[in-house]
Design brief:
345 residues, mainly alpha, 3 domains, 15 helices, 6 strands, elongated
Length: 345
């Protein structure tokens, strides 16, 4: 009996030893390697055409808090990296070793950036928003989209180039060139204009650029997306009747002041092809970068008989629609009375 008890104890002891060995093996085999960077979250290192090797070393110290810069220098020297640096955005993680980080730089293994743009009016606003997210910068992008020869390469001009940029989120490399960026945008534009959308545009009938132009006006008319298809239908009614669009946002664009609360006669007389009180049809280009929702609202406009509209007198942001001019005048007077009471000039 005693011998049997001893065997049980020995078996339990051996089991504990074996389990301990197995646990130790897996711990040492799979434990995270100690990091060579004193950081708690990923950090980005940017290398542009102006940054040299010593600038990178400074970033490794100040941004990535590298623990052993001497090791990185040894690796760089052995690979003659100093004269073979590759531009890009490189992300260093808290668990990355110095060797892993150097291999990333040496082989140009970049991490893409998420490029997002929406709710943009002017080309300068677009260049500032988007260009700042790329190595080429805002000023360079603005020069390109203002260059008629550059725009012509992609089938647009300087007044319509905004139509090519479909607001969304895109994944690209930080060192992508302006040409490659707009080339990608052209592909996204062609992907957006499916056979179904083209068929709807032809039925109105409008070209894709004209759809974008009309959508830009619709979006400036209201902040209520539910009203987009109704407003689009109103302007399509006016186009079909060869009526002047008389869209206030185009006047604001023509005078260069989107903050106008009241459109006065002096504004209506501005001589600009964007002044739809003066010139028939659609303006030559969009007055903002139209969104997908805006363009789809034109393609899926609401059929009705409305020809006139004005802002609601309660200043709620809603719209009063009218079929006849007499009805429109009554709506306009109510709105103007509210402006007068509130001393809005």
């Amino acid at each position: 009996m005693k011998r049997k008890t001893n065997l049980i104890y020995i078996f339990i002891l051996l089991t504990i030893i074996v389990l301990g060995c197995v646990a130790g093996y897996f711990y040492f085999r799979f434990r995270p390697a100690p990091s060579d960077f004193n950081i708690t979250e990923p950090v980005s290192i940017y290398i542009d055409e102006k940054k040299d090797y010593y600038g990178l070393l400074r970033d490794l110290e100040s941004v990535a808090n590298i623990k052993n810069l001497a090791q990185f220098k040894k690796l760089a020297s052995a690979a003659q990296y100093k004269d073979n640096m590759l531009t890009g955005r490189y992300v260093i993680t808290p668990t990355m070793s110095c060797a892993d980080a150097f291999g990333m730089f040496l082989n140009g293994r970049q991490t893409p950036v998420q490029i997002t743009f929406n709710n943009i009016r002017l080309k300068s606003d677009f260049a500032e928003k988007v260009g700042s997210q790329f190595m080429f910068g805002s000023e360079s992008l603005l020069k390109k989209i203002r260059n008629p020869f550059f725009c012509e390469i992609f089938g647009f001009d300087t007044t319509t180039i905004a139509c090519i940029f479909i607001p969304n989120t895109y994944e690209m490399y930080w060192n992508t060139s302006e040409f490659k960026f707009i080339e990608r945008m052209k592909k996204e534009y062609e992907r957006f204009w499916t056979a179904e959308r083209l068929e709807k545009a032809n039925a109105i009938p409008l070209t894709p650029v004209q759809v974008a132009v009309l959508a830009s006006i619709v979006e400036e008319e209201t902040s209520r997306k539910s009203d987009y298809p109704i407003i689009a239908g109103l302007y399509i009614n006016r186009l079909r009747k060869n009526m002047l669009l008389q869209a206030d946002p185009t006047v604001k664009f023509a005078v260069g002041n989107f903050s106008l609360r009241r459109i006065l006669y002096r504004h209506l007389n501005v001589n600009s092809p964007y002044n739809t009180y003066k010139y028939p049809g659609l303006p030559p280009g969009p007055i903002r970068f139209p969104s997908i929702a805006g363009m789809d609202s034109v393609l899926n406009y609401t059929p009705h008989n409305y020809l006139f509209m004005t802002a609601k007198e309660d200043l709620s942001g809603g719209t009063n629609f009218a079929v006849t001019h007499a009805e429109h005048v009554r709506n306009a007077r109510k709105y103007q009375a509210t402006l007068n009471r509130n001393r809005i000039r």
